[in-house]
Amino acid sequence: MNKHVIRDVAEFVDGLGFILTVDGTRPLDELTAAVTSVCARAEEHDGRNAVVLRLRSARPERSWPGRVRIGQVNRWERAVRRVERLAAVTVAVPEGVCGGPALDLLLTTDFRIASPDFRLLLPVNDEHFWPGMAVHRLVDQLGAAQARRLVLWGHEITAEQAVPLGLVNEIAQDPEEALRAAVVMLGQLSGAEVAVRRNLILEASATPYEDAIGTHLAACDRELRRLARTEESKAWS
Known about the structure:
about 240 residues; 10 helices; six-stranded mixed sheet; 2 domains; 2-enoyl-CoA Hydratase, Chain A, domain 1; globular; three-stranded mixed sheet; alpha/beta
């Protein structure tokens, strides 16, 4: 594994999870390896409830991902999807311009803390629009009408505009302090429980009721089984 990848993934304070610094100026393969690495470490430690992604500014010219092969893009998209499926609470802390890889990852996370200078921009590649999966997630999270002005006309979204849209949860003058508080608060939730809730949300907008009912009933069954085990345990204590 690339030595830079190992250095970029660190344990969060008090052993509450892992933190990855994502530098948008890095080559695509390095970014893919870094994201894959933090996912692997989170999956190996079920007791760690949080994965924090510190998202550094993209290139000023917004170019993403550069001259790469489609196989590299596919591996990147699979790594991003892996974040979206983690059995852990995921927190993003974007700084400044949020585009390219930072935008892809931001849209997969459960809780988002932005700096006051946050600006969300869609990426371009060689001055042409880059049709990555960020567009799919923006439409899914904002709806077609809200996403249209960003996707069609390339308008940027500031931190103040992002909060009511639900793209950012809070704006923090001191992101590190806000991050610590958020991880402690969110750490009270089970990573597996968060994964179930997230999956139900992701599937709701694209799945017909007849197909979704099975997934929801399975989730209800798991909860009822958990409740039965808890009551049985109390009866024996």
